[in-house]
Structures are given as structure tokens and as C-alpha cells.
Amino acid sequence: MRVVTVDGGPLAVSDVVAVASGEATVVLDPGVTERMAPARQLVEDVVAEDRTVYGITTGFGRLATTHIDPEQAAQLQVRLLRSHAAGVGTRLSDRSVRAMLLLRARTLAQGYSGVRPVVVERLIEMLNRGLLPVVPGQGSVGASGDLAPFAHLALPLIGEGFVRVDGVEADAATAMGAAGIEPLTLTAKEGLSLLNGTEGMLALGVIALSESRSLANAADIACALSVEGLLGSARPFVPEIHRLRPHPGQITSAANIARLIDGSAIGASHADDLVHAVQDAYSLRCAPQVHGASRDTLDYAGAVFGRELGSVVDNPIVFAETGMVISGGNFHGQPLAVVLDFLAIAVTELGSISERRTDRILDPDRSGGLPAFLATSPGLDSGYMLSQYTAAALVAENRVLSHPASVESIPTSGLQEDHVSMGWGAACKLQRVILNTANVLAVEIMCAVEAIEYRAPLKPATTTGEICALVRERVEPLGDDRPIGPDIEAIAEMILGGKFDRFVE
Fold it and tell me: Using alpha carbons only, what angle is made at residue 52 by residues 48 and 57, rounded to the nearest 5 degrees?
């Protein structure tokens, strides 16, 4: 199994995805203990000297001016976890929780938080042993960090809250005891450092980015299949066009589609566009421009996430070299919130143009001779008519979900936290947009494969033929009407699982 090392330095997006997917184990670099020691010593000095430092000898948020006696510093951290575990709603997936555990461990290992190495060690142990905290999906406003989600993530460290083991929820104290893990007794600042930061929305964002890349690949594939199924022209994808407008994503999408349909006997059968059609609809010939814009957005998001995966986002930050503990704003999620909203828009557009191609395949007036709705016996059978309804409904829902969360700040903590990012909400609705778009693209792929088969005896290109065969391993040809919801979901699962990625760049 792949090994990802937490050493206090940046992580790669691929590392996070591998750990989240259960395809990698995590180890702590031996040098982390030495790296963390100076900041930890400074925190202990602050407590011993009874200095007034936010979150160590004071309350939190609006209560930052309330002094806490040194002998209550440890109790303060425990009560913080309990009070902030106010999340509600659907529980996060194991994949999301694994990513959060990893990223929280990475942040604390940097040596700017002032916690003991044992806290990092315990987070990694829980991750590797599959003791995954139960984390509700709602309750964060994405500013002082994803406080409520991280409180639920941290409670099992002290033997409270709940964990999920092999898909079964259990009381944390019982499950941790059965695994031979003793609860931690938190000391000064450790509870606060377990809560502060952007790693929650970042974890969801990194996973979403990986899935969105698979959606972009599937969109190029779906378009190529539709071009063949609709007797579309290959000319809009020639590189000469795209060199004149050199957006990287556009060039990539055009090259993907051109290569996928290269050598198609279906395409060769109508190569003279003046006989077949002067030009195709936008949803076909402008696909590189639309898909490419989404690809460029994904690249931008990858750059932002990459910076965040090496950033210090705790508060206050412990500068051992200068003896300062400074309360700043690196926990604020705005840099991520804006990008997460941008991703939702980009992914929505992949589904929007896909639905238009599906509609064209199913419309007998615009499909180039295909049977109405690809029905075996139109009239008696409705064929894939309702699949377009599903795609239309999901596209409409995505348009609502694409309204930016990052402009919806709402004050908290008695106006001490008077501008928040709503980045967690942006990440959560992005998950819904991704699933919707996977189903929309699945509808197009399902219909386009059927359309290509109606063009027999003409054969598709070699690569699109391989894709059709792969789809047919999960979904049979339509024939007489049958419930098609499971077919759509099966292809969507293939898309999000990266089964089509190998066919494109």
C-alpha cells in the first residue's frame, strides 16, 4: 500500500486523495517531535507565567477578554470541544473524514500550533486503524475554522463522541477501549488547535477536485460519443483552430475529442460537410471551449488547494523563534470558499452542455435519422425519453446550487466574528453538484452509446468502440422499455470511480 508521510511540510493533492480513498497508509516522520518542541515549550511558558494569550489563558470568540486561571487551562480545552460539537445533519462519508484526519495532523505537525506530538500521533493512529469519528455535515460557517465539524472529529481523542468502525457507529470510549487506545488528557491550547483551521473545507475540496477532473474527462468522452452518434463533424476539433485561442483547457479538450473519434468509419461516411451539414450545433462544435473553461477552473482550484496544503492555518500562531503567540486570521476560509463556488459553476456547465447533446440525440427531428427517443418501438415504447427529464431536473438543481455561498456572510459570536466565509457550505453543495453532473453525463453516455449502435454496420473509432464495450459491461442495450435509473447510476459510478480517465489526457 502507498505510504504518505506527515513531516510538517506540504502534502500533494494526490496524497490526500489516496488516503481519503483508503489506498494509502500514513506515517509520522520521526523529525516531527523535534520540530514541534519549541512551540510547545512556549505555550507551557505562557501558562506558567499567567500571560494573557488568546485561547490559552482566555475564553474564545466574544469571550476573548475573559481571563482563565492557569490551573483551568486544561479544563478549558475539554469544555471547548464539548461546547463546539454542535453539528447536525447527514454524517460525512468515511472518505471525507479520513481526509480531515490527515490534514489536521499535517497542520499540527508544522510546529506552529504548540501542541504535543502525541496529539498528532493519535490522529494518525485513528486514521490508520479505521476508527473514524462521526462528523455531522452541517454547522460550520468557515471562518474561525470549521469549528463544529472539527469538534466532532476531535471528541473521540478524549474518549467522547462517536466513531464509525467498518461502517458501524459506536460510542467512542467503547470502540477506542476495544482497540486498546487510552483517551488523551488535553493540555493548554490543544483543544483550540484541534478546531481552528480550514482543513475541513479543504478536505472536501480536494476530494471534489479529483472527482471533477474525472467529470471533465467524462464530458470529453460523452461529447465524442455524441459526435459519432449524431453524425457530427470532426472539423471543429482540429488543432489549427485551438492554437489561435490557446486556453490550455480548450486545447486539451479539443485534442481529447479529436483523438477519441480519429479513424471512425461513422465519421468517414459523412466527411463532406457540405452534403451532411454546414455546421453542427454549439453543444457539439463548441464543446472544447465550454469543457476547456471548466478544465482551466479546475487547474486554478488545484493551485489554490496546493498552496493551502502547505499553509499554517491555526490560531493563535505560535512563533517559538521570537517568543510571540499572535492571533491573526489564517483560519478564515475565504480563499477556499470563492474557489469552491467557482468549481460548482464549472462543474454545472459540464452538465448543462451535456444535457443539450442528450436532447439532440433523443429528438427525431435533430438526431440524423435515429428512432424517436431511441425506442425500439416508438409509441409503444418511450425509450430514453425520461432520461432527458432526469438530466434536465439535475441541471436545473445545479443552477440553484451554483449560487455562491461565499457572498453569504452572516455574523457570529456576538459580532466578534462579523465576517465569515461560508466555505464549508460551498464545499457541501459542491458535492451535490458533482453527483448531479455525474448522473447528467451518465445519461448522455448511455444514450450516445445506443445511438452509435444504431449506426451499424458502420463502426465507431477504435477508442470510442472500447468505451462502448466498457459501458456494455454494466448496462445492456435498451430493447423493450425497462427502468433505467439503475443504468444511469451505474455509469455515474464508473465516472466518479475514474473508470473512463484512461481514455483521455
Answer: 65
- Whether residues 164 and 220 share a domain: the answer is no
Residue 301 grid coordinates: 482550484
Distance CA 44, CA 128 (A): 30
Instruction: Let me know if 384 is a catalytic residue.
Output: no
Q: Where is average pLDDT lowest: 266-275, 422-431, 488-497?
A: 266-275
Count Cβ atoms below 10 Å from residue 403 Cβ, excluding itself: 12
Look at the chain and report how many structural domains it folds into. 2
- Which residue out of 54, 112, 300, 454 is catalytically annotated? 54
Distance CA 417, CA 410 (A): 9
DSSP state of 322: T
DSSP characters for 60-79? SGGGTTSB--GGGHHHHHHH
How far does CA 412 lie from the centroid of its chain? 27
Residues 122 and 173 in one domain: yes
Q: How confident is the model at residue 274 (pLDDT cuts 50, 70, 90)?
A: low
Please state, in angstroms and rounded to a whole number, the distance separating the CA atoms of residues 41 and 428: 38
